[in-house]
Amino acid sequence: MAIVTQAASEEAAEKPIGKAGGPEEKVGEAEALEGCSCSTVATLASSLVWPAICCLPLVLTLGGPLGLGYQNVFPRAWYDEEPVEPVRGDYGVADPRTVKPLGLILGILAVAVGQVFMLAYHLLRRSSLLGFTQHIQPEARVYDYLQGLKSHLSQPEGFALIGSYLVGTWMLGWMPSSYYSFAGGINWVHVAAQLLLQDFFQYAMHMGEHKISAWIYRHSHKPHHRFTNPKLFDAFDGSLADTSAMIVVPFILVARLVHANVWSYMAFGSLYANWLVLIHSEFAHPWDPVFRRLGFGTAADHHVHHRLFVFNYGHLFMYWDRVLGTYKSPSELAGKYFNKDV
């Protein structure tokens, strides 16, 4: 290194001050600028997946001037602007025939649309069509995209269990009254509160599964930890007990603490479901440097947990890990378990 540095210094010293470099140097500078420009474009294009994930609630609440707002699209009798307290019978459940299902249908559709954009993004990244692709771990997992997609969509612990929770709580009138309201658009403070609280409760349940007893860990979270080098399609591949404890129980708690309307609930659900998948990606994402500075969870942060088991119990945020001393930066594993610059 010293020889190279000295040679470079001598070469620089021999160049006349104030004169431009030769043709080869100009070509190198042009290529570097072009590469930087392409990288910036790829990063910006990749980052569009985030508003795309929320596109359905965004369009239906902001698309009024274009005739795409929910008030233009759906008959007034299909939804309520004001909060609604469903009438529950003797067994504490409402008659599903008295509960309007539009909010539920749109919520599930919002997650599905978000999944389409997220999966398309992953396909483009995997094909190196959105800039340079860096594997987080040196050993790349080779798999067929369509087979991975089929596995992802067929996990009962993911879509079936969570979908059943959503349908049951909505149609039986178990959600707080504010969730049935279409008024007010997306309240991003409510969305942020839901994401933070969901991740906090999930952190607690996650650590509990690891720490309380070997029996609990073996019968809940251990099936998911067979992936020490996860790929994106492994996100919901675990067990029913694991999903119930780490996702469904926090859902119940968060709904009682944050009285959001249907649009905020919809945006939260789509962001949460897709972010949870993205942190299992085998590739680093273009937005990861910004996320890491903000304390948001990245794919590399979650790979630390899958590789070492005892760090980074948070998913969407690393705040709880930092406060409680369970955070480990992916950079500490560079060169041993991880590639550099992930």
Compute the average pLDDT: 90
Number of strands: 0
Tally of alpha and pi helices: 15
Weakly predicted, low-confidence segments: 1-20, 26-35
Proportion of residues in β-strands: under 5%
- What sequence of helices (H) and strands (E) makes up the elements? HHHHHHHHHHHHHHH
Rounded radius of gyration (Å): 24 Å
Structural class: mainly alpha
**Terminal Cα span:** 25 Å
State the helical fraction. 55-70%
- The coarse silhouette is globular
Query: Main sheet, how many strands, which sense, barrel?
Result: none
Describe this structure in words.
- The chain contains 15 helices and no strands.
- The chain is mainly alpha-helical and 342 residues long.
- Helix 8 packs parallel to helix 11 (240-257) and helix 9 runs antiparallel to helix 11 (240-257).
- It is globular, with a radius of gyration of 24 Å.
Task: Give the SSE map.
Blueprint: H1 2-14, H2 23-47, H3 49-53, H4 55-62, H5 70-73, H6 102-126, H7 145-153, H8 156-171, H9 188-211, H10 214-219, H11 240-257, H12 262-278, H13 288-294, H14 299-308, H15 319-324
